[in-house]
Amino acid sequence: MTEVITHISEMQKITSKFKRQGKTIGFVPTMGALHDGHLTMMKQSIAEQDITIISVFVNPLQFGPNEDFDAYPRQIEQDVAMVKDIGVDYVFYPTTEEMYPGAIDVNVTVGRLASVLEGEKRPGHFDGVVTVVNKLFNIVQPDVAYFGKKDAQQLAIVEKMVDDFNHNILIRGVDIVREADGLAKSSRNVYLTDQERKEAPHLYQSLKLAERLYQNGERNSDTIIAEINKYLTHNTSGHIEEVAVYSYPELIEQQNISGNIFISLAVKFSQARLIDNVIIGDNKDD
């Protein structure tokens, strides 16, 4: 039976009890509007841990002044029904006032890893992410936390935060879950028009093209980026905001590719900004 918990103190009591009993806790932090990508992470936690806790919290700290905090989809009843069906034990669903009862006087700031890619486009975003993730880790006390590889920069930053702050938590990256036509599942896909939805799978196809170029021996980033741009321009009406090749998880821009690389892109359609990526390379951990 899935229980919904809204108070920090109650959630801490519950997790402390399971810790004393020696049970392992898996945790999936979310902002709600759940889809199969989220559910895949939860199912993995259910299979691997004794107790699975998810959070549903739309975190205001990671939204910029011109971003979609107020418009972000909120559907808690539907979300709870979905996770009940797969056997999640607890949904932690705090209010903003519960999480941030007053001004935050001590801030967690991400350094170089947040100065590129999404972090460069959204100043302060990853500071908000690590602040709320730190709070959630302290509240839930998980043994393992599950994050999607779709937000690969976020995954790299959370892994570094866990290392830097000595959290005794294993971070597990979960592969991107895609629609049958290849589009990465995302809460923002609902904002696509019918025509844009037909075009959106080409984001993944452009990354598959890049992967084929790499497999055929191409190691020049500029060449790969140019081919992705050409493909997207021809096959979508969206505005290409970025195509980039970085080392992973170090997130250092690459000119001549070696080792693991992260090829990422961002395309802005009329009402939805979509991101996607592939991680490939000689040392990729399959």
UniProtKB/TrEMBL annotation:
Gene Ontology terms describing biological process: pantothenate biosynthetic process
Provide the top EC class: ligase
Tell me where in or outside the cell this protein is found.
Answer: Cytoplasm
Q: Name one GO cellular component term.
A: cytosol
Query: What catalytic reaction does the record list?
Result: (R)-pantoate + beta-alanine + ATP = (R)-pantothenate + AMP + diphosphate + H(+)
The record's principal subcellular location, in a coarse class, is: cytoplasm
The cross-references to NCBIfam families, in alphabetical order and at most eight, read:
panC (TIGR00018)
* Biological role: Catalyzes the condensation of pantoate with beta-alanine in an ATP-dependent reaction via a pantoyl-adenylate intermediate.
* Self-association and partners: Homodimer.
Q: Which PANTHER family match?
A: CYTIDYLATE KINASE/PANTOATE-BETA-ALANINE LIGASE, PANTOATE--BETA-ALANINE LIGASE
Please identify the protein, giving its name as recorded.
Pantothenate synthetase
Q: Which organism is it from?
A: Staphylococcus lloydii
**Name of the gene:** panC
